[in-house]
Amino acid sequence: MIQKKIKSLIYAGLGLVLCVLLCGGIGMTSQAESYGNLTYEENESGITITRYTGNKTKLVIPGKIGGKKVTSIGWNAFSGCRGLKSIMLPKGVTSIEAYAFMGCSGLTSITIPDSVTSIGLGAFGDCSGLKSITIPKSVTSIDYDVFRGCDSLAISCYKNSAVHKYAIENNIPVKLIGKNATPASGTPAKKGTTLTISSKKLQVKVTSSSKKNPTVTITKFTDKKAKKLTIPATVKVKGVTYKVTAVSDKAFKGSKKLTTVTIGSNVTKIGKEAFSGCKNLKKITVTAGKLKTISKNAFKGINKKATITVKGTKKAKTALKKQLKKKSIGYVKTWKIK
C-alpha cells in the first residue's frame, strides 16, 4: 500500500515536471504566423516581420498585429522584392535587421520613423533605384555596407548624427536637415561646409559663400584606385557653381595609383605635401597665371622621371617654371618641365 502511494507521488511529480517543461518550451519558442502577405514572429518585445510574399508596388506596414506592436523588420524580410517601389514603416519599429531590403532594385521611397535606433548589415544593399532616403537622428547604430550598390543615393540626415558620420566615412552624398539644413538650390553653402562631388570623386570645402564668387578648395580624392585625376576649374553642387581655387594640404598624399594629374586653371594655391608620396605620378599638366603658391613638399616623392607641362602665356609660364624648380617643393633634376 505504501509502495503504491510512493509510486503515485513519483508519477505525479514527473507529470508536473513534464508539464512545466512543455509549457515553458511553448512559451519560449516563437512560431511564424501570417498576416495577409506578411509572415511574422511574436516575441517579448513585439512583432518581427520575417517575410513578405506579396507583389504590391506600394506597401504600408501595420503598426500592430494581433494587438502587439510591430517592432522589427527581420533578417531578409523583403530581400529580392524587386517590384516594391514604396514602403512605409510604422512608428514603433526600433530595428531594421541585416539584409532586410537587400536587392529591392525598384525601391524609390521608404519612410523610416524616428523610433528606429539600428540598421543592420547590408539592409539596403543593391537598392539601385533608391535616390534619396531620410534617416532620423534616433538611429545610433548603423552597420557595414548598409547602402552598398546604391550608387545614386543621397542621404538626408542631421549634422553630427551617427548616420551623418557614416555617410562621410563612406563617401555618400549628404543633405543636412534641421537647423543645419543644406541651403536650397542656387544658394551657396556656408563657409567651411564639406561637399561631395560624386561625378569627380572629390570632396571639397567651401572657402567663400559669396553669391557672386563662391569658391572651394579640394580636400580629398575619394577614388583610391584611380590612375588619372582632373582638378576642374569649377564644380557645380545644388545649382551653384563654385570656383576651385586651391588644393589643400595633404589632399592627395600617398595616392600611389595616380599616374596623371591635370590641375584646373582657377587654382591659385597648392598646399603642403598635396601630392607628396605619389610615387607613380609621371605626368602633370598645370595652367600658369593664377597659380601663385606651391607650398613646401607639394610634389616631394613623385616619380623621378615626371613630366610637368605648363600652359599659359610666355611670361606666366616662365614665372611658374621657376617655382617648380625649387627644391622646397620636391624638385629633382630628372623632372622634365616644359
TrEMBL record:
Superkingdom field: Bacteria
Give the matching InterPro entries.
Answer: LRR_5 (IPR026906), LRR_dom_sf (IPR032675), Surface_bspA-like (IPR053139)
Q: Which Gene3D superfamilies match?
A: Ribonuclease Inhibitor (3.80.10.10)
**Protein name per UniProt:** Leucine-rich repeat protein
